[in-house]
Amino acid sequence: RTCTSPRSFEESILTAKDIAGRALILIGKKQLPPPNAMYLAEVKETLCMGCGICVDVCPYSARHIDEIKKVAVVHPSLCDSCGSCVAICPNDASYLRDFKSNQTIAALDALLT
After folding, report:
1. How far, in Å, are 9, 21, 35, 37 from residue 44 at the CA level?
2. Is 19 in contact with 41 (CB distance < 8 Å)?
3. What is the CATH number of domain 9-112?
4. Helix, strand, or coil here: 63?
């Protein structure tokens, strides 16, 4: 990256996560999930067709397509459990580990109160 003008804290964090994600792809080592991740996104490889839609929609650059297996791979240290990949996946291959569907209503209730 080149030098840029001063950024907000949030922009700096996102840039750092982006760069870290690119480094992880090159290094290829498994990473531990972030301690604040409530539900880590995962992929059911048997359902994934490797279309890459989840990769394109991920705001944290936490996914890539494994070129050998032709399936999506999640970088746990970058995933923020936002659920964008789950919502967009046409085959229901993406999911949030340990998330139960009845928790959606409870989460919405909490947001509205």
Report:
1. 35, 21, 23, 19
2. no
3. 3.30.70.20
4. strand
How big, in percent rounded to 5, are the helix, strand and coil portions of the chain? 35, 10, 50
Please give the model's pTM, rounded to 2 decimal places: 0.57
Identify the residue whose tokens are 């995962």: 42
Residue 3 CA to chain centroid, in angstroms? 27
As a whole number of angstroms, the distance between CA 57 and CA 43 comes to 15
Token pair in block for residue 27: 């290094």
Identity at 52, one-letter amino acid code: G
Q: Counting every residue, how long is the chain?
A: 113
- Per domain, the residue ranges of the chain are 9-112
With a pLDDT cut of 90, the percent of the chain lying above it is: 35
